[in-house]
Amino acid sequence: MVNCSSHQRAGQHGLVQKPLLISDFAIADHAQPRSIASIITVRREPLSLSRRFLGAHTKLLRVSHNAPFPQPDFVHLDFHGPPLDAAFRYGRAFAPVYHAVRERSLHALGALNRITPQAMTAQAQVWLGTLPPHFRDQLAALAAGAGTPVADMATLLYADISSPSANPAALCSPAELASGTDPRDRSIDGRTIDTPGPLCSTVVSPLINEHRPWVARNCDWYPETLWRGTCSVLWRNPGPGRIPSLALGIMGDIDCDTGANAAGLWLHMHTQYATDLPRPGKPAISWLFWMRECLETCATLEEVERFVAEVDRDRGVLLIAVHGPSGAAAVFQCTRGAYTRIEPADGSDPLHGPPGTLVVTNHCRHQQPRQSEAERRALGISKPNSTVRRYNRLLELLHAHPPEHGPDDLIDLLADDDVEMRTAPSLRTIYSAVACPQRHEVYFASGAVPAASTGQWRRIPLHW
Predict the structure, then answer these.
(1) Which of 103, 105, 378, 455 lies 20 to 30 angstroms, CA to CA, from 323?
(2) pLDDT of the residue at 317
């Protein structure tokens, strides 16, 4: 069954956009994939939300093989079945978009990553083989639901993180790739913090006169991934002993870099520079599946820390964690095989932010330049959208205008000219999220021209 609702808001500002809702709709195994628009009904009802939640009528998801490649509309998927059944149904929902945009996406991402189709396919198969068995099975079920070979699905999902053909990583053995070896990282001066790659920004902060933390993040990545559209996926039955979770991001992704779980835990990641390898004898998981595994197996920050300590990843990441029930928050600065836990600022050092806050871009806290204010400002503007520049701007905003109203003030912070990425040659802020885990509130926006702030903010259903 599919339920789509669009809510009209009274007043001069027009409409509030709400997500399309897809809940375990029944499709016979022999049925051919068909357009979601053909099985969606629309219902409108009044809704009052923040003044920021403005937009046009919700559009149905329609992608034609003969039409240009529009960005499909945001979709909320709510799956009650067991993992393989849920993944298969996810594939059915993804099928119309997958078949419409796959070839164009591979061509565009291959050009951006300077990788040949043959090398991308070969790397994707090695990557698929390194995934934990339960995630490999779910990816296979996703492919079956979309009516495509698992190798073809894996290549599309891997395309945006693939390595250039000229990179020695393309010639590494499967064992080296499985271990997380990335010569692209090792080729960069270890002192450099303004490294190439995805760039993201985060603030964790209580509101004025409140103690509960809010979290706000920009995800900066290739806008070409938005050809698949964005979605939220609620996995209500992830398997025995695992915690139901919500994943936010790109349609078709079965991994996760932004999400929450039924225990009240919020997690999301940034990437960071790392030179080490996973530790011999320790389990290691590809970074985006690593976070989904953490989300489905950890209920507290202490459990997150144990997971981070025991399970390595195939690249450096900054894991931002907020525990709603306790109000605790932390950042785990992770290389492939080591980590440091960072607590919220205590107010003693202005470079760490006001009391109770965490500021994260793409470098570790100890790497933040400590020169005079003038020198630090000069360094911060030395590169457009640099990790230092965005960090300094977030600090400036938090000190000058502490957030008072959620989610509005945090949305304004993410959309700041010097925080949101709009001008880089290939990267943009493709989506943004604001959440208060303690209040079970999650808001999401996506857009590509020029960035996520041009999209509509939606409140994501979060009812476990």
Answers:
(1) 455
(2) 94
Q: Are 237 and 290 in contact (CB under 8 A)?
A: no
pLDDT, tens only, 245-282: 999 999 999 999 999 999 999 999 998 888 889 999 99
DSSP string of 272-312?
------PPTTS-EE-HHHHHHHHHHH--SHHHHHHHHHHSE
- Three-state DSSP class for residue 85: helix
Residue 373 belongs to domain spanning: 201-227+267-459
> Taking the alpha carbons of 365, 366, 368, 371 in that order, is the dihedral positive or negative?
positive
- Residues 90 and 215 both lie in one domain: no
Q: Helix or strand or coil: residue 65?
A: coil
Radius of gyration for the alpha carbons in the chain, expressed in angstroms and rounded: 21
Please enumerate in sequence order all residues whose Cβ is within 8 A of that of 46, keeping only pairs 6 or more positions apart, or say none.
7, 8, 9, 10
414 against 66, higher pLDDT = 414
Average pLDDT over every residue of 390-405: 93
DSSP class of residue 387? H
- Those residues whose C-beta lies under 8 Å from the C-beta of residue 29, and which sit 6 or more positions away, are none
Residue 326 lies in a domain: yes
109 domain residue, yes or no: yes
Cα torsion at 259, 234, 432, 269 (round to 10°)?
20
Residue 442 sits in a domain whose CATH number is 3.60.60.10
Prediction pTM value: 0.82
Instruction: State mean pLDDT over 229-234.
Output: 96
Average pLDDT over residues 166-186: 36
Are 219 and 137 contained in the same domain?
no
Does 157 share its domain with 206? no
Indicate whether 58 and 147 sit together in one domain. Answer: yes
Flag whether 196 is in a domain. no
Rounded to whole angstroms, what are the CA distances from 271 to 89, 197, 294, 314?
Answer: 30, 8, 16, 11
Is 175 within a domain?
A: no
End-to-end Cα spacing for the chain:
19
pLDDT at residue 50 greater than cutoff 70: no
Amino acid type, 460: I
DSSP state of 405: S
Q: Please, are residues 13 and 51 in contact by the beta-carbon 8 Å criterion?
A: yes
Domain count, the chain: 2
- Give the Cβ contact number of residue 405 at 10 Å: 14
